[in-house]
Structure formats: C-alpha cells, structure tokens
Design a protein that fits this description.
The chain is α/β, with parallel strands linked by helices and 271 residues long. The protein has one domain: Ribonuclease Z/Hydroxyacylglutathione hydrolase-like (Metallo-beta-lactamase, Chain A), CATH 3.60.15. It is 24% helix and 31% strand. The structure holds zinc ion (ZN) (2 copies). The site of one zinc ion has 4 residues, from loops.
C-alpha cells in the first residue's frame, strides 16, 4: 500500500511476474496481472497491453463478480486484442462448467477519450512497447463559472440558472497518469499530461549492464527517468514494474542515487 496525497495505491508490480494497481478512491484498477479478492468490487479496470503479467487476473475478476451476482465490471482493453481475449474468456468459462459469465469489454484506441464515471474521463495515450500498448490519463470533469459571471451575486446566478442560461464551462483537472509498459512517452501526447497530479511510471531496468535489454524489450531504464520527470509538474510520482532481478534494497539505493535531490520528495517506489 502506498499513500500519495488523497490516493491509496494497492497491489503489486514486478516485471514479468504481475502488475495490478488499485486506486480505491477513483474506483479503478490499472492492469490486472493477478486479482486479489479485495479488488473484485472495484468497478473499472484499465488494461495497458496483452502481456500475461498485465491481464492474467481477468478471468478471476469476471467469474468472481458473476458468482457474487454483481453487475459486470467495466473492463477497458486495447482494441487489437479484443477478439482473442473474448475467445480466451469464453474457453475458460466453458472449461469452468460451461458457465456463461456475463462480462463487458470496451475496446480502446489511442486518441480516444472515454467518460467512465459521471465526473471522470480516461484519455487513451500511446505506449511504445514490444506489443501494442496504451497509457491512460484520468481527468476529473468540473463545472466552472464562466468569467463573465464572476462578479454576480449568488441571487443573480440563481436567477440566471432558473432562466436556463448556461453559466458554466466544463473544465478537466488531470488527476492520474498510468504508463503501461513503454520505452517512453511524449509529454505532448495530451495538453494536460504534464500537469497530472500523480504519475505512475514504469522503470523496469536500473543497472548499466541492462541498458541494451531495456532497449530491446522496449522498457524504460532508470537512466532515462530524470530527463522524463523534468517534463512533469506532478506532485506525486510512483515508479513501478522493476525487474525481479533486483532486490528492493538495490532498487531504493540506485533510484535515489540517480534522481536529483529535488525529486526525492515526490518520487515513491511501488515494489
Ligand atoms: Zn510488464
Ligand atoms: Zn509488457
């Protein structure tokens, strides 16, 4: 468990083993490499790509909700793998006593935006990985009074509302970004990206002898992180998806050695 301001991150993330991160306050899960029972009641699941350690928990999530008579969760998946995922899930459910699990998959494509709760929208951003992969930027939708009405009294505003005048604009507040597995992402991928309050960023490899491996497998190396973070104004940054070759002690030591001291405060590790 990791506390970042108002958000609690729960789960685990280890490269090639499993990545699953829940933010309960937002009712969402990023990737589902395994599915702990306490995640079953969370209603939104965002899958970044189809490597097994990022989606292997889906059959458990789906079947447990079905067994508990809960409505199907909203599962968002890259569109390229939608058909195969349907096939796999249907085959598993057939093997599991021929039960007809109700489930709901929504395909996502880079460039699209999906409103998934009354006040939350997910922007689908590109990943750069060995298989098609996406990143997610979650924004809160807020109503803001139009500038021309700023000087009005409460009474005048109520009167305008009753008269049917549209007195507010919709604005978006960038909350959380989740990079799936990726070799990098351009901060220009979305105008709100660099201002997201919490950035969850992979950092698979950390030692100099793994530079080539990071390049070949299309992952971020720790040496790339300081320049990347420089572009983000985020108050909280969480590094995850470290290779299981490294011990937690080595990861802590290497990460904080590489980062500038000004970043020490805002960077946390999800191990
Ligand atoms: Zn991975
Ligand atoms: Zn991967």
């Amino acid at each position: 468990m990791l506390q970042c301001g108002n958000w609690t991150l729960e789960g685990k993330s280890s490269s090639a083993v499993a990545t699953y991160i829940r933010i309960k306050e937002l009712d969402l899960i990023f990737d589902l490499g395994r599915c702990p029972m306490r995640f079953i009641g969370t209603n939104h699941v965002f899958i970044s790509h189809f490597h097994l350690d990022h989606y292997f928990g889906l059959p458990i999530y789906i079947s447990q909700r079905w067994l508990a008579d809960m409505p199907p969760g909203n599962i968002f998946v890259p569109s390229n793998g939608l058909k195969q995922l349907h096939n796999i899930l249907n085959k598993i459910s057939m093997l599991d006593g021929g039960r007809n699990w109700g489930y709901h998959l929504t395909p996502v494509d880079v460039g699209r935006s999906i409103t998934f709760r009354k006040n939350l929208v997910a922007h689908i951003l590109p990943g750069n990985h060995s298989v098609p992969s996406v990143s997610y930027l979650i924004c809160e939708i807020r109503k803001k009074l139009k500038p021309e009405y700023h000087n009005l009294s409460d009474r005048e505003i109520v009167a305008l509302k009753h008269a049917g005048v549209e007195i507010t604009n919709e604005v978006q507040l960038p909350l959380v970004t989740y990079f799936g597995d990726t070799r990098g992402i351009s901060v220009d991928a979305h105008p709100l990206l660099k201002r997201c309050q919490l950035l969850i960023c992979e950092c698979t490899f950390i030692t100099p002898d793994h530079r080539e491996r990071a390049k070949k497998t299309k992952h971020l190396h720790l040496e790339m992180i300081p320049a990347l973070l420089e572009q983000f104004e985020s108050e909280h940054i969480v590094l995850n998806h470290f290779s299981r070759r490294y011990t937690p002690e080595l990861i802590r030591h290497e990460v904080y050695k590489q980062l500038s001291t000004s970043d020490h405060q805002r960077v946390k590790l999800f191990l």
